[in-house]
Design goal:
This protein is 35% helix and 19% strand. It is α/β, with parallel strands linked by helices. It has two domains: 16-297, 4-Layer Sandwich (Nitrilase/N-carbamoyl-D-aminoacid amidohydrolase), CATH 3.60.110.10; 320-520, Rossmann fold. Helix 2 links the parallel strand 4 (65-67) and strand 5 (106-114). Helix 1 runs parallel beside helix 2 (85-100), helix 7 (320-338) packs across helix 8 and helix 7 packs across helix 13. The N and C termini lie far apart (60 Å).
Length: 601
Amino acid sequence: MKGSIYHGPGGIDNAARRHGGTIQYAMRSFRIGLGQINPTVGDLEGNVAKIRAGLDQARAQGCRLVAFPELAVTGYPPEDLLFKSAFIEANLRALQDVTRATGGLTAVVGFVDKRDDIFNAAAILHDGRVAGVYHKQYLPNYGVFDEDRYFQAGSAAPVFTVGETCFAVNVCEDIWYPTGPTTRQALAGAELVVSINASPYHAGKGQQRERLIATRAADDLVCVAFVNTVGGQDELVFDGGSLIVNERGEIVARGRQFAEDFVAADLDLGAVFHARLRDSRRRKEKRTADEVPRTALPVLSAPALIPVIPEGAAVTPLPPVAEVFEALVLGTRDYVGKNGFKHVVIGLSGGIDSALVAAIAVEALGRENVTGVTMPSPYSSSGTRADAERLARNLGIDFQTLPITPTFESFKKSLESAFKGCREDVAEENIQARIRGTLLMALSNKFGWLVLTTGNKSEIAVGYSTLYGDMAGGFAVIKDVPKTLVYELSRHANERAGREVIPASIFERAPSAELRPDQTDQDTLPPYPELDAILQAYVEEDRSVVEIVARGFKEETVRRVIRMVDVNEYKRRQGPIGVKITPRAFGRDWRLPIVNRFREK
């Protein structure tokens, strides 16, 4: 680890030593581990097994303390399972199992505590017993979070001592507040703050977290160990990226993104004491921390001497597009696997959206677990048919052809009298999409395959999709991915494969639903770069018509796009969930009324 040497259990005395007229401070090394695990909501037995495995790994690496994520016992978020008393009691029994497994260690584990109410809590376990409990104080109730619905907020910010080491624990949101529990605990003497988290992903959030944790550590002159959960849970993806940061705000170790990991590092807690001696502000502020409760824990026998841990900060964060791709892969893998499915089926149109979904599915599940189906209509071009087959061949997946023209003609004949005197229009277009949805759902029912839909965020935002047609399915992989980003991700899929998985002709062809002769998406929609920019301003930033027009867009176009977004909420509510990768995803983040007559003037 940069600038530190592991001296073995107990380290060296923290006493100041005078030598040559200067005061020198000996290193006091403390080895901490973070169990970055992928729990499943409600799988208490499986989650406990992951925690126990992490405890074993902590012992093997000579850690003095090991921490696991927020609500690691139950999985996050448990939502209305928290209204079930049987669930709460089972979680408490599971914590007892974990406690018994902590011999020779101090461990911090997220669970649901039960008193006169229930709390999002961290158990401080020490050598086989519960030494203390911390209750989360700041309960997020915005975006995807709804913790006020379930939990009571805590108020105490205790610190714990083991020999010369003073540490504290808090939970997720607590560390985001600059004068919150972390500051109080640091002023009360904590040299190390352990923050347990279930912080969901959106693009760029990892960098935001790193800046926040580094700032908090440097401002409070405290080492921070930030453990985050990893894995997919419904539409949420947790990206891991756990951090260990020293009192200067320097990242000492970083966990992998989108994968389980065990992160360990040696911290020089003597350096914390030294840094605080130079900060006179703390002496004035420290008077307010006198009432913070302090618990002394028995000193445990030292683990065997283990060599210095390699530099953990060598784990490099992923570039932006690669990061989103990995989030989509993990979200798809966990949604499919945790729900008991093994195989997925995708309608391959020969377009860019279905090509990207297929590439993600293969990466997530393996080519043997993916089937692609092309369903040509009277308006399907030879180019898209060939591209669908070429894509399937490049990916090595099962490929089936189910023509819909006979069925479409049968539908039109059945509706002949009802539609008498009417010209063909969007109704006939949507019939084709619904036939395709029916065929895919038939395969799903017959073989137990999960249907992955292929609509992107740009289309879903403005309703450029068909209810019970291309929206029919079990999981919408790219539902939160704007069309322009679809192209970037598709190019990345080819780059990471080192070959042309998605054919070049798919990139070059104008996007089209191919539901009528010579149709392109731009017959109905603005060009995608323009549409995505307007949607970014309206959906992500809540900008007004005037503000969006001021960015250089035509007022008529802006009003048309906004109207399409507003009137198509009823469609979005009926579509499947998908992976959240933006700060404002349709679903939990976006709560527009369906019955809504407001229109901006």
